[in-house]
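Subgroup meeting minutes
Present: P.N., E.W., G.H.
Scribe: E.W.

1. P.N. recapped why we're keeping a running log of single-chain structure predictions: easier to compare across weeks, and new members can see raw inputs and outputs side by side.
2. G.H. added today's entry (520 aa).
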Amino acid sequence: MVRQTLWQGALVLVTAGVINRLLGFIYRILVVRVVGPEGVGLYEMVFPLYSLVLVITTAGIPVAVAKIVAEQEALGQWCQVRRVFRVSFTVLILAGLTTTVLLLSSVDYIPVQVFPDSRALWPFFTTVPAIIVVAAGSALRGYFQGLHQMTPTAASQVCEQLVRITLGLYMAHRMLHRGPEYVAMGLALGMVAGEVVGFFILIIYYFKTGRTPSVTAAMTDKRSPPLQLFKEIWRLAFPVTIARIVTTSLLSIQALMIPQRLQISGVSVREATVIYGQYTGVAIALVNLPTVISVSLAISLVPAMAEAIARNDLNSVQRRCQAAVRLTIISGLPWATVYFLMFREISDLVFGLPEAGLPLQVLSIGCIFYYLQQTTGGILQGLGRVNLALRNVVLGAFVNLALVYWLTALPLYGILGTAAANSAGWLVVALLNTICVSRLTGLKFDGRKWLIAPLVASSGMGIAIILLWVRIWLVTGHRLVATLLALLIGLVCYLVLLGAAGAITKSDLQHVPLLRCCFR
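Output recorded in log:
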C-alpha cells in the first residue's frame, strides 16, 4: 500500500468521518421512528458502561503502537515493527478475553449496580462479544496508523457503519412484537456485526497490503524482547488511558450534576431534563460536527510527529505543527461564526428546536479552543509527551466541573452557565497544550496568518451572512432557503477573503487531491 502523507491521511479520515456522521444522523432518525423512545432509551443506557469498558480494555495501546511503529518504520527497523504489532495484538486479545469473562461472570451484579432499568441487561450482554473484536481491531488500526496508512481504518469504519445500520434496523424491526428489550437487543446485534465486519476488513488489508518487508530484508534490525516492548508500549499507553477515563468520567459526572444544579437554579425536574436534553442533544452535537477535521488531524499527527522525531528532523516537526494548528483555526472559525450569529436558525434548521440555540451561541465562543485542544493533544502524543496531555486534560476537567457546579445553579445563567463552563475548560486545555507544544518544538505563532487573517475573513463572512439572510428572506419568504443560501455564499466569501489575505496559499490547495491537477 502506498504510504500516505500527513494531509492525505487526514483527508481520508475526514472523508470517512463525514460519511459516517451522515449515515449516523440518518440512522438516528430511522431508529427513533422504527424502534420508539423506550427501545432507544434501553439501547442508549448500555453505552456509558460499554464505552468505559472499551477504554479500560484497549488502555490507550493503539496510540502507543502508532507512535512506536512510526518511529521504527522511519529508522527502517522492520523486525521491530512486526514485533511491536504482535505484542500489542496479543496483549489486546488477552485483555478483551479477560474483560469478556469478567463481565459475563458478573451478570448477577450489573443490573442493580449500574443500570437504572434492569431490562438494559439484555442489550448490554449482547454487546459483550464485540469487546474482543474491538480490542483486536484497535491494534490493527494503530499499526496501520503508524505506517501512515489511513485507508484501512477509513474503509473499516464505513463498512462497520453500513452493517450496523442495515442489520441493526432489520433485527430491531423483526423483534418489535417481543418487547423493547428485544428491540434494543436487535440494535446491539447490528452493532456487534458491524464491529466484526470492520475487523475483517482490517485483516484483509493486513494480509494484502499491510505486512512489513520480510525478515531476511532486515537482518540488521535490533530485536527487543517482548517484555521490553510491552513496557515501552505501556509507558505511552497508560497516560492516554487515564486521560480517556477522565474524559468519559467527566461526561458521566456532568450528566448527574447539570440537571441537579439546574433544579437549584429554580426549574422543575421535568424542565431540567428537557433543558439538559436540548443542551447535549442539540448544542453539543452541533459543536461536535467540525471535530471530524480536528480528530482526523490528531490521529494523523501521532505517526507524523513520531517519524520526524525519530529522524531528528526538527524542521519537519515545526512545519507540521504550524500547518496543523493553522488548519484547525481556519476550519474552526467559520463554524464558530455561524453558531454565534445564527444560533437559533441552525438549531431550528437541523433539529427543529430553535430554543436550544442560546447555549450554542455561548459554546461558539469557546468551540475553537475545543478543536485546538484535539489537534495539539495529537501533537503531544506524537512527541511522546502523553503525560503533559494527561495533566492538561485533568486541569481542564477540574475547571470545567467547578464552573459547572457554580454557574449552572445561578438563576441568571442556568444552562448558559454550563455552556460557559465548558468553553472555559476547553480554553484551559488548549492554552496549556499550545504552550507545551511551543516549548517542545519551538513552534512560533504567526499572528497574521493564524489569527488576524482568519478573524477578518470570518468577520466578513458574518456580515455577508446577516445581510444576505435578511434580503433573501424578504424576497423568498422562506427561512430555510434564506439560511442555506446565506451560509453557502458566506462560506465562499470566507474562502475568498482568506486567499486575499494570504492565509490560504497554492501549496495548501495542492494538498487536496482533487485540486492538485490544477497546479501542475
